[in-house]
UniProtKB/TrEMBL annotation:
SUPFAM superfamilies: ACT-like (SSF55021), HD-domain/PDEase-like (SSF109604), Nucleotidyltransferase (SSF81301), TGS-like (SSF81271). Its EC number is 2.7.6.5. In eubacteria ppGpp (guanosine 3'-diphosphate 5'-diphosphate) is a mediator of the stringent response that coordinates a variety of cellular activities in response to changes in nutritional abundance. Residues 382-443 form the TGS domain. Residues 45-144 form the HD domain. This is GTP pyrophosphokinase rsh. It catalyses: GTP + ATP = guanosine 3'-diphosphate 5'-triphosphate + AMP. The lineage of its organism: Bacteria, Pseudomonadati, Pseudomonadota, Alphaproteobacteria, Sphingomonadales. It comes from the Bacteria.
């Protein structure tokens, strides 16, 4: 542990203008406040914030960050308050400490919700001042170094998993690769102890057998580049156990099949020398196609710049080589912290631009599960590059689709997306993008995201925005049904209902807006009796609790509402426009629409029915048919031809029975209305290929 004078001297070495007295005061303050508290290791608790502050001095961070590191646990674990911190060390330090401090008074929340709320607060604070992230990463790194002292295995597992899912990717996203690698290694050892032990043992065996091969290859590379007149440094290393394990898992290969376990780094004086060195290496040894990446001309989002290539060395050995300038290397290893240039007025740094996406996710995520899922997606590290038609570059996760790209450009573009051209060709929205694709998004201001998009989008930002848009649309459409039901409820009370009565009803029900009431009615979260009592207290006196209201002088139209949002079409009877329909209200769920003659309705005698109508020019639906064909060549094609002639699209077709000479199929087809469906049935029955055709 750093002593007080050692810490102060380290800060003064790179910042002679630092306030020595305040640094001393902060050191003493954390020692006094933590007092006799002990860590799981048995060390004094204050050793932890002191070590975190030491990590910050290694990165040559400013005085406020060092003091924040010293004080970051005082509010959470001692009697100190944010007001105390502000009084002693000023508003800037108080704000930073508050950003790093976990939320209090949430101990009663489930574990996942507690983690999500702490993450939400942390991300918001981080967006205001990136120094919050730097302290938090150092805090987590030191905690991981002492993780083995925690006695409870489940707690160690939880901390390690959180580190692997959240903090290591965050370190990668701001370019702090040294932190990322060490956190991954420590978490990997806890989460996969057998895998860690096996790979470590195999690496030790290779090390004992290679006879200094890593040093020999590094020397050979250095000699070849020096002969060309380049001033360079070359170093070699084995890949980390977690990196090897991840590659084995990703490619489904064994340890022996991972051929690029050795990696070499070449440091040059200039960018030009980087490309010269690359050319020399490629002309000396065969390079592996598809394994070259130029992160100098196209840096990663976190600012990482380097050339990566893989070479086939002597004896068919495959080695990875990274080429960069010394300045790039310094920035790459510690990223944002290494080239410390924090400016309070400038938040346009490209390395932290992705924070805007994280903040959108915080605002749009509905609950703890969504926030954790979307955040993990947003900070995941594997990336590809895609361009707009005007040449703007966007980095996306591997597997990202045109919809992900649209939301990456702008949330509004994603919400209005209806199609896409990839490299000039119309392609399905679910098409995964490849490196270098040029993506043009086709939009329609009246369009809305589809719930089905969630099956293929991979970015947290897209998932959060789609889910929020679908929730809002569902709320609006359920409220539309609720407002129609409200008119019927209001007609049954012994008074004329105006705005004043509605305002009073909202107060009695604890609601803020009329839309809240309409949504509650449509979603069956409130009964007709409760609404009537709220409108006119006492008006339901004498009416039995279980008495069903006689209602609906006219059917409620579902025209303009979206199947799967405000209502669902029952799969037991597959109603289509033109069928007589009723709806069943289910508490907290959408209305389920049945054909009036559906046998399933018999089981819902005591449920809340709504008389429904399709309305004029209703959107079509899916009809379900059972068709028995003669089992001979060409009959299936003839049936398909009948569907085509009648402009009906087949969505599913399944063979359900073979009883020679007959074969029976269950078929779902998109139709405009019941007339359209009956016309198709008539055509099928008239065909020599069809033995029987019935609607299911």
């Amino acid at each position: 542990m750093l002593r007080q004078y050692e810490l102060v001297e380290k800060v003064l070495d790179y910042d002679p203008n630092a306030d020595e007295a305040m640094l001393n005061r902060a050191y003493v303050y954390t020692v006094q406040k933590h007092g006799t508290q002990k860590r799981a290791s048995g060390d004094p608790y204050f050793s932890h914030p002191v070590e975190v502050a030491g990590l910050m001095t290694d990165l040559k961070l400013d005085q406020a960050t060092i003091i924040t590191a010293l004080l970051h646990d005082t509010v959470e674990d001692t009697l100190a308050t944010i007001d105390d911190i502000e009084a002693h060390f000023g508003p800037e330090v108080a704000r930073l400490v508050d950003g790093v401090t976990k939320l209090s008074k949430i101990e009663t929340m489930p574990e996942n919700e507690r983690a999500a709320e702490n993450l939400r607060k942390f991300l918001l604070a981080m967006s205001e001042d990136i120094r919050v992230l730097l302290v938090k990463l150092a805090d987590r790194l030191h905690n991981m170094r002492t993780l083995h002292f925690i006695k409870k295995p489940e707690k160690r597992q939880r901390i390690a998993r959180e580190t692997m899912d959240i903090y290591a990717p965050l370190a990668e996203r701001v370019g702090m690769y040294e932190y990322m690698r060490e956190m991954q290694a420590l978490a990997f050892r806890e989460l996969e102890p057998e895998g860690y032990a096996t790979i470590t043992k195999r690496l030790e065996q290779l090390r004992s057998q290679d006879g200094g091969q890593v040093d020999a290859i590094a020397l050979k590379i250095k000699q070849r580049l020096a002969e060309a007149g380049l001033k360079i440094e070359v170093s070699g290393r084995e890949k980390h156990p977690y990196s090897i394990w991840h590659k084995m898992s990703e490619r489904h290969v064994s340890f022996e099949q991972v051929t690029d376990i050795m990696a070499f780094r070449v440091l040059t004086d200039s960018e030009e020398d980087c490309y010269r060195a690359l050319g020399i290496l490629h002309t000396t040894w065969q390079f592996l196609p598809g394994r070259f990446k130029d992160y100098i001309s196209t840096p990663k989002t976190n600012g990482y710049r380097s050339l990566h290539t893989s070479l086939m060395y002597e004896n068919s050995m495959r080695v990875e080589v990274q080429i960069r300038t010394r300045e790039m290397h310094r920035r790459n290893e510690f990223g944002l912290a290494a080239h410390w240039a924090y400016k309070q007025s400038d938040k346009s740094d490209g390395q932290v631009g992705w924070l805007r996406d994280l903040i959108e996710i915080v605002e749009q995520s509905h609950d703890a599960e969504e926030l954790l899922e979307h955040t993990r997606l947003a900070i995941y590290q594997d990336r590809i590059f895609a361009f707009t038609p005007k040449g703007a570059l966007f980095q996306m996760p591997k597997g990202a689709t045109a919809v992900d790209f649209a939301f990456a450009v702008h949330t509004d573009l994603g919400l209005a997306c209806v199609g896409a051209k990839i490299n000039g060709r119309h392609m399905p929205l679910r098409t995964p993008l490849s490196n270098g694709d040029v993506v043009e998004i086709i939009k329609n201001p009246g369009a809305a995201p589809q719930l089905s998009w969630l099956a293929f989008v991979v970015t947290g930002k897209a998932r959060a925005a789609i889910r929020r848009a679908v929730r809002l649309k569902e709320r609006d459409e359920v409220a539309t049904i609720g407002s129609k039901l409200f008119d019927e409820i209001a007609a049954r009370v012994p008074a004329k209902i105006g705005k004043k009565a509605i305002r009073s009803a909202l107060q009695r029900l604890g609601m803020d807006e009329p839309d809240d009431l309409m949504y509650a009615i449509g979603a069956a979260k409130i009964t007709d009796r409760e609404v009537m009592e709220a409108l006119v207290p006492g008006c339901t006196a004498g009416i039995e609790e279980d008495e069903h209201w006689t209602r609906r002088e006219r059917a409620i139209s579902i025209r303009g509402l979206t199947p799967g949002v405000a209502f669902e079409l029952a799969t037991c009877c597959h109603p289509v426009p033109g069928d007589r329909i009723v709806g069943i209200r289910r508490k907290g769920e959408t209305v389920l629409v049945h054909a009036i003659d559906c046998l399933e309705l018999a089981s819902g005698v005591d449920t809340d029915w709504i008389d429904l109508a399709w309305g004029n020019r209703s959107v079509g639906a899916v009809g379900q048919l059972s068709v028995t064909l003669y089992d001979r060549p060409g009959t299936l094609a003839e049936m398909a031809g009948i569907f085509a002639q009648n402009k009906a699209n087949v969505t599913t077709l399944g063979q359900t029975q073979i009883d020679h000479p007959f074969t029976t199929y269950d078929i779902e087809i998109e139709v405009q209305d019941v007339v359209h469906l009956n016309r198709i049935l008539s055509a099928l029955r008239a065909s020599d290929a069809v033995a029987q055709a019935e609607r299911q």
